[in-house]
Amino acid sequence: MKPRNTDSPRYQSQKQAAIRAAAAVFSEKGFHGASTADIAERLGIKQGSLYYYFDSKEEALEDVCLYGLRQYVDNMDAIAGTDEPFEARLLAVVGNHLGSYRSKSEALKVHNDERLYLPAERRVRLKKLGTHYREQLELMIHDGVAAGAVRETIDSHFLAQSIIGVCNGLGEIIVRDPEADVFELARKCTDLLLHGMVPGHYKGE
Amino acid sequence: MKPRNTDSPRYQSQKQAAIRAAAAVFSEKGFHGASTADIAERLGIKQGSLYYYFDSKEEALEDVCLYGLRQYVDNMDAIAGTDEPFEARLLAVVGNHLGSYRSKSEALKVHNDERLYLPAERRVRLKKLGTHYREQLELMIHDGVAAGAVRETIDSHFLAQSIIGVCNGLGEIIVRDPEADVFELARKCTDLLLHGMVPGHYKGE
DNA sequence: CCATTTTTCTATAAGTCTATAGAATTCGCT
DNA sequence: AGCGAATTCTATAGACTTATAGAAAAATGG
After folding, report:
1. Phi, then psi, of B145 in degrees rounded to 5
2. Across all strands, nucleotide nearest A32 (CA–C1')
3. Which CATH class for the A56-195 domain?
């Protein structure tokens, strides 16, 4: 183990850069397909030097996943804490999810696709964040039911998973097409989830 | 290159078994994380012997992906070819998608998560099948609009991607919980897509 | 039941990868 | 400029992988 000053501003900014470099490489080649040499090269240093910032390749993956997930979950907490009407909160949730694909697509993609390759003990913190996210969403749905904005016959676990699924599906559009209008997509997505695709319901549009 | 009789019934059944073994291992460890030794072990033969059935590890991945995708796409063709009303066809599509997670979850999961690690020239056949699938779905949506079953304001690319997304999201429930009732999930999913989560629309339920 | 074909095994070459240790360089500060 | 700390470099051990070649074993069929 090397001596390192984890508080120095230089260390912090390089570590941040290292995480982003790892995110980019993992997202392109996958965890096992990427080598530490790939990550170091993108960062502009040599392979061995990378171990100044990560104790192991697995730690790098964990850091990338946490980085990708953190802001995303924080935003959810903020949304769940407001007393906006259900529809507005749903729009905010969808917007947050889709927005993450644009701003930090790589780290979040790595979390989605590669986190399973982490050993169980490295996944605890991620799991906590993930279940927290879903719980907040399910609570929101319960509120929606109580407020009469959501049918009582829909169970919240099913619905939460559906919402997450649609967002991930649309995330592919966002990643594929850098021109895609994220806000417009979020609006259409929320509308679909609320009112379905069938025409002629009272809400005129 | 070894001499092999690809027509003998024994070869065919062992090759099938090899593809399934590869699917299981790739799905658990990922393409790069899995070794040819892992696949051979699951099949009950030695590492070197595997090359009697695959020219390379990449070919194994391609075969697994094709295996996972084929039946899934064939079913879509059958569904698109009927003249059932739109709602019934949507239910069939969703049921097919969710059902695939139950029956061949491993190969389809491999296709979803690992196909990107194939070199471009090995991906052509997969791409063809995939875009064919989405085109059929978009055509179905156009029919639905023409028949008045779908709002005109929804664009079919967006909707197709949303449908695929919800199904993948619910696929996680199916994979996680072997007791989950796939047909019931498909019904609820179709209902959500058609009518949304908001209560009080004319269709009483 | 023997001869031929098919399938599997053993052994290994050649390459890649992670992680470490210690030397060399750069940085921040006075 | 010069000292000590922080950062990066070089070099390498040790493990693991894919793919191949030729020997061995098992199946097939006349």
Report:
1. -65, -45
2. C17
3. mainly alpha
